[in-house]
TrEMBL record:
It comes from Nipponia nippon (Crested ibis). The lineage of its organism: Eukaryota, Metazoa, Chordata, Craniata, Vertebrata. It comes from the Eukaryota. This is Anterior gradient protein 2. GO terms for molecular function: dystroglycan binding. Its main location: endoplasmic reticulum. Gene3D superfamilies: Glutaredoxin (3.40.30.10). Pfam families: Thioredoxin_7. It is found in: Endoplasmic reticulum; Secreted.
């Protein structure tokens, strides 16, 4: 009789632990489903500068593409937490003419500095926009309206930026 009660007790313990294990497994899959159910929006290379435009991932890739497609490269240096960068980004993204013209460029926006000193001819500030032609020459002659920050643009400078983009494309035809 003693063996029988031990046996039934043993079977009861096994049954309980199996039930608990199943319950824990159910909870676990439910939790993982809940956390994976909310898709994180992918951080696109545009970073909000124009989602329909094609952006390159690295400076090296951008130079390669510029050289091989014979398109000028436009590099936008900016920071996510900089109010000036945010304001320029908004103006850039909302300006249809700028967005249309941008399609003719190899595009790169950087939230970090490159080691290429040519990309900071007059210092490392943001936002700044530089153009590089397919011969990989930085167009230091295409500048904004500030003498102390030659490549800085503000939201109110969007038409100047547009004409500078046109200038970068025109120089391409006349010089190459």
């Amino acid at each position: 009789a003693m063996e029988k009660s031990y046996m039934s007790m043993f079977l009861l313990l096994i049954a309980i632990s199996c039930a608990l294990a199943k319950d824990a497994a159910k909870k676990e899959t439910k939790e993982t489903k809940e956390t994976t159910a909310k898709p994180k929006l992918p951080q696109t290379l545009s970073r909000g500068w124009g989602d329909q435009l094609i952006w390159t991932q690295t400076y090296e890739e951008a130079l390669f593409r510029s050289k091989h497609s014979n398109k000028p490269l436009m590099i936008i240096h900016h920071l996510d937490d900089c109010p000036h960068s945010q304001a320029l980004k908004k103006a850039f993204a909302e300006n249809k003419d700028v967005q249309k013209l941008a399609e003719k460029f190899i595009l790169l926006n950087l939230v970090y500095e490159t080691t290429d000193k040519n990309l900071a001819p007059d210092g490392q500030y943001v936002p700044r926009i530089l153009f590089i032609d397919p011969s990989l020459t930085v167009r230091a002659d295409i500048t904004g309206r500030y003498s102390n920050r030659l490549y800085a643009y503000e939201p109110t400078d969007i038409s100047l930026l547009h004409s500078n983009m046109q200038k970068a494309l025109k120089l391409l035809k006349t010089e190459l």
